[in-house]
């Protein structure tokens, strides 16, 4: 599965690759930032919480580089695009 996230209204999309564990949880396997074409390996979890309203992405280590690195992303889940 793939999950796309726009952080801080940036034009670049962060695309996370994950393996589904349950309807509300997945294991992170990779990410692509912006126009990058090669997936970067990563481990961690993705969860849907609060009845599916919150998306929580928690990499096992910090993701990104200063000043935009993060160790957990909590955002509002807007819905599914595509099949």
Could you characterize what this model shows?
The chain is mainly β and 83 residues long. It has one domain (2-76). The protein is 0% helix and 51% strand. The protein has no helices and seven strands. Strands 1, 2, 3, 4, 5, 6 and 7 form a seven-stranded antiparallel sheet that branches. The chain is globular and about 30 Å long. The N and C termini lie close together (10 Å). The mean pLDDT is 76.
* Whole-number tally of structural domains: 1
Number of strands: 7
Quaternary: single chain
The first-to-last residue Cα distance is 10 Å
| Low-pLDDT windows of residues | none
Structural class: mainly beta
Query: What's the overall geometry?
Result: globular
Order of helices and strands: EEEEEEE
pLDDT averaged over residues: 76
Radius of gyration: 12 Å
Number of helices: 0
- Give the biggest beta sheet: 7 strands, antiparallel
């Amino acid at each position: 599965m793939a999950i796309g996230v726009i952080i801080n209204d940036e034009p670049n999309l962060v695309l996370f690759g994950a393996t589904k564990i349950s309807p509300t949880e997945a294991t992170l396997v990779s990410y692509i930032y912006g126009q990058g074409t090669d997936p970067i390996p990563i481990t961690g979890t993705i969860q849907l919480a609060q009845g599916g309203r919150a998306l929580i992405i928690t990499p096992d280590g910090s993701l990104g580089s200063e000043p935009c690195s993060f160790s957990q992303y909590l955002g509002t889940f807007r819905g599914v695009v595509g099949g």
